[in-house]
Amino acid sequence: MEGIVDSHIHVSLLPYEGLENMALAGVKKIIGCSIFFGAKHTETLFDHFHQMLTLSMKNAAQNGIKLFVAVGVHPMGTPEDWPRVIDALPNYLKMDGVIGLGEIGLHEGTQREQDVLREQLKIAKEYGVPVIIHTPPQDRVAITNKTIEIAAAVGMEPGKVVIDHANLDIVDLIEDFGAVPGLTIRQEGLTPHLLLNHLERFQRGVLNSDYSNLKPNDPLSVPKAVRYLELSGAPPEIIARIARYNAEELFGI
């Protein structure tokens, strides 16, 4: 299909050839999410945001891909002086190409992580922007429930909340809240085969690769999943929604 959107990719960790290959596979738009693993200083995140908004955006454009950026404090890279990042987020949300906050969320569910998430959700609510929220590989039901609890208490509009790395264990929680399932395609999680077998349950979702170089990953997982669904005879209208239109509507791209 044409116009594929990868709704969650860590573009600063992607080699240039990765962008080229994504473009050749039909990817036209990507959402670059923030993460700097183990960040100790606020300036580290500011430099990270700047890199995505300059070099990464330029590299994407050279390959015919439109990069949109989500900024924020990832739970696996929270500096000691994280409130300074929170204070700066409104200025970033005014910049061209910034579409919301992400990747934010809980990893271990500590009080500190909850505080950081809550403050970022307050900013997102105030400015009416969508958020892309992380879920960890462990304690997924408990972490997802806590995430939803915090988002509801802040008053976030559920339809602007992507709860990512969704799978059969948490998709019903996401749907019951009214949030959007982030459909990360990878072998140790939501595979194309699993997606096909439960496509009706995932049809409100947005496909993504969650590409980074922090672990084995495939920047082409989204177009490969699309091709698998097409060859398997999945309804074209559902494929188009999860691979393009749901993300375009949610992020205004």
TrEMBL record:
Protein keywords: Hydrolase, Metal-binding
Record-linked Gene3D superfamilies: Metal-dependent hydrolases (3.20.20.140)
Top-level division of the source organism's lineage: Bacteria
Pfam families: TatD_DNase
Family: Belongs to the metallo-dependent hydrolases superfamily.
Designated name of the protein: TatD DNase family protein
Protein's UniProt keywords contain DNA-binding: no
MF term (GO), any: metal ion binding
PANTHER family: HYDROLASE TATD
InterPro entries: Metal_Hydrolase, TatD-like, UCP005295
